[in-house]
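Chains adopt folds. We examine one example:
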Amino acid sequence: MSSSLIFRKLFLFGNTRQDGHFRNLSEFMEVLRGRGFEIDIERGFGRYLDESGVDISGCTLVEALPASADAIVSIGGDGTFLHAAEYAGDSEVPILGINTGHLGFLASYTLDEAAMLADMLLGGGARLEHRLVLRLESTSLPEGFRPYALNEVALLKEDTSSMINVLAEIDGYKLADYLADGLVISTPTGSTAYSLAAGGPIVQPTLDCVTLTPVAPHTLTLRPLVVGADSDITLRVTSRSATCRVSLDGRSFVIPCGTTLRVCRAGFSVIVMRGPEDDFASILRNKLLWGRR
């Protein structure tokens, strides 16, 4: 949707692998200060910038997302964006992704676009996309583990020898026994991540659906499946191994086989900030070279 809101109070979050970008980061910070933004920086990232010679004068170092923040600026790759989404939690503070990593589907802008991004934040017609978030429920969740995923929930074999059998039910009805190396439950946002690598479809990220993609299935009759976002998905694993692995956006833990997992829609969204001319088709062409010969 379009927005004429002004995002003046920013929370900056980034990774500490910015080699080769310090000059651009300094120029970016100078642009933000010159436009009068109020800037809070995640403490670890702020100290890293300061020690690397980036001028962060006038900024405040903080431990967590301030309640007054209008927007989060994520500086890194898509992995950094996922960490920024963790900071956002259920606040639904919009996140603007700046890419200093590799491909960058979520973090699609560059530091060279500082002036344009500043204009957009100050009322330049930003579009706010509400992205589906998944919630994982299980009695085997480790203490303190964040049970939400913006990209995917993946259930995977723990070792390299035996496949696992995943009994999947949707809304209380048996779907299938997935005999495979694993099963990826993906949001539309995550359709260009692990699910795509496993052969799943690319899904427009604002659609309201979930994709189930088997990883190296043992039978050709198990193909990727798209279901409604309000589906209640229950999973239970059996295997020759005693354990299997559960991964949420790359954060993982081990559970005993036989454990029941429930995957459903979370009660909040992650809001991604896009420019007025930043559309899904152009991302496909520029990031995945869609239709290139």
Observations:
- The two ends are 33 Å apart (CA to CA).
- The longest strand covers residues 173-180.
